Amino acid sequence: MNRFPPERIVCLTEETVETLYLLGQEHRIVGVSGYAVRPARVRKEKPRVSAFISAHIPKIMALEPDLVLTFSDLQADIAADLLRQGVAVLGYNQRDIAGILAMIRSLGALTGVPQQADAMATTYETRLAGIAAAASGKPRPVVYFEEWDEPMISGIRWVSELIEVAGGRDAFADQALQPAAKDRIIDPAQVIAAKPAVILASWCGKKVRPERIASRPGWQEMPAVQNGNIIEIKSPLILQPGPAALTDGLDAIVAAVETARKGVKQRC
């Protein structure tokens, strides 16, 4: 990185895009992931230069970035290609709520607005604490979060933590500690045994089909299926470890948990 703060940033995942917009630093962004949708205007304002595990290196280089922001080992090859081109790369790897808050503060410091970033993170911390306090002492319905359907993959750590904040009990909290999706593959019989009151699904960009979930062999006796508590949360709201998960994503979980707690029957 030749300049501080960097003046030309390329963001290869959505959460850094949203964070920079919220910090008022969107003028520094010169390229984004094709999956970036928050805020909505980003799709009109910024050129798209990547998917998630692939990127158009010549397009990125043409933007003359001071810094490229990546996420996780899944973008390691992209990062390596850019580093070989002499581009500065910063790779985040947040997998829990604490990591999300640290990412926000880090980006604020990186772009010269540390106080704004700290205030934002503190606001989220206060909000999380308030929601957790409101749920304290109430029944905690069992929640099964499905990140993918074939094979069935349970939720990652920040999702599990948000379920607990919302007043639910993650059916597969132990598996959530595994960062790799392949280590969170579960058997349908495990879900049947857990007897979830709520099934939350976010199939990583693919439309969730509640009727398919409900028709799985042996699932008809689950409280979640019997009461129609099979709820899709759109991927940009919950599977991006950034502000969306701490706001709209968490709100969706809170609403689902409240519905299950009241025993209200929903339509799938």
Give a written overview of the molecule:
By secondary structure, this protein is α/β, with parallel strands linked by helices. It has two domains: about 120 residues, Nitrogenase molybdenum iron protein domain (Rossmann fold); about 120 residues, 3-Layer(aba) Sandwich (Rossmann fold), CATH 3.40.50. The chain has 13 helices and ten strands. Helix 1 links the parallel strand 1 and strand 2. The chain is globular and about 60 Å long. The C terminus is likely disordered.
Count the E strands: 10
Q: What's the architecture of the largest domain, going by CATH? A: 3-Layer(aba) Sandwich
Instruction: Tell me, briefly, the overall form.
Output: globular
- The first-to-last residue Cα distance is 50 Å
| Mean pLDDT level | 95
Radius of gyration equals 19 Å
What is the CATH topology descriptor of the largest domain? Answer: Rossmann fold
Q: Helical proportion?
A: 40-55%
Largest sheet: 5 strands, parallel
Helix segment tally: 13
Question: What number of structural domains do the residues give?
Answer: 2
Looking at CATH, the homologous superfamily of the largest domain is Nitrogenase molybdenum iron protein domain
CATH secondary-structure class of the largest domain: Alpha Beta
Q: What would you call the structural class? A: alpha/beta
Low-confidence parts lasting 5 or more residues at pLDDT below 50?
A: 264-268
Proportion of beta-strand residues: 5-15%
